[in-house]
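Box 3.1 — From sequence to structure: Protein THYLAKOID ASSEMBLY 8, chloroplastic
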Amino acid sequence: MFHLCKPHNTTMASSLHQNPTFLKPQPSLTPKHATTRRNYIPVRCGRPRSQRGPLIKGRFLSIEAIQAIQTLKRINRINPPNQTQLLSNTLTRLIKSDLVATLHELLRQQHCTLALRVFSAVRSEYGADLSLYAEMVQALDKCNMSEDVDRLIEEIEMEGGIRCDEVQRKGILNLIKAVVCAQRRESTVRIYEMMKRSGWGSSVEPDEYVVRVLSNGLKGLGEEELALHIQNEYDRFFKEKFDMFRI
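Predicted structure (token representation):
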């Protein structure tokens, strides 16, 4: 006779029901500190780049120039009886580069009254080209000191006028633009007269761009007849020059 045996899977099933914890997930054996997540908050130092002020290229002041500017402002604020002498003593101690740097910084800060004193020192000690005069005119116009613009042009005339040559071409152009922008009609006419006395348009070949800026500026200031005269002179000069080469 054969004896029937119960299958082993029945015993295994009953064992699973008796030990339900066998089916529960077992805790990880990984160390506790390895599973901990840390949140890092980024910290930015300084202001964002979009809020930073623009860099000013090429503006370097020596200690002497900075001290001179501070002294000039203090003297101007206190206004002592010997103010002129104190200002002169401060400026005469500066070398040319520091003196010019002081002038440019005062113009940038629109301290035009002090800048005029410094400009006078620069002009008397080292002379001033027309481009520097043009910078002064622009600053004085911003400070609503139009009469001082006219005085500067008068000083150019008293000191010998304008020399028309290739070296002064850029300075003449800058000065004309500055005076026209300042709406100084008489000073613009005076510049043209000084140029004529220097031989501009006769012995000195007129520059086409200078002619256009000058004539358009005079036209805008109400000197239409003079503007037309300048343009006609320019055309006649080059017509005669062309005829001479053709012969």
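Summary of the box: The radius of gyration is 41 Å.
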